[in-house]
Amino acid sequence: MSSSLKRMNPQSLPDAGKLGYSQISIADPSRLAFVSGQVAWRAEGGTAPRTLEEQTAVVIENLKGALTATETSSQDIVQMRVYMTDLHAESMEVAMTQVMAFLDGAQPSLTGVGVAALAAPELQIEIEIVIQLPL
Questions:
Q1: What's the distance, CA 98 to chain centroid?
Q2: CB-hemisphere CA count at 13 Å for 45?
Q3: Phi, psi of 94, rounded to the nearest 5 degrees
């Protein structure tokens, strides 16, 4: 499925490929799945972990669950948005290390956004994705 996605980092834009994402993702006509922002809440309930590293791990597990449910892989992610309440170089490194491992070489278009708050005061990170589905 992922072969129908074209990734671009034109010379007229900064080379995002060096950082693990693409400036432009082109998806052929197909069905798309818009996955709601995932936070560090587990399906079985409970409280969110305290650290950004632990929260990111839960978010990644939730994203993997969405990929499994749609019978897709990280290679099918067209776009990803990462929202963080405490966005700075160190927190980005903590989160993006896990995000890049999850992407496993896929380089979707990616946007990082610093926000004042998420759905609950303890939440530090939220990630939403758009996935290209098989026809």
A1: 10
A2: 0
A3: -60, -50
Provide the residue-wise pLDDT of the chain in tens; the chain has 135 residues.
Answer: 445 788 888 889 988 888 888 998 888 888 999 999 999 999 999 999 999 999 999 999 999 999 999 999 999 999 999 999 999 999 999 999 999 999 999 999 999 999 999 999 999 999 999 999 987
- Domains located in the chain, CATH noted: 2-133 (3.30.1330.40)
From the number of C-beta atoms within 10 Å of its C-beta (0-12, 13-18, 19+), residue 23 rates as middle
* Greatest alpha-carbon span in the chain: 47
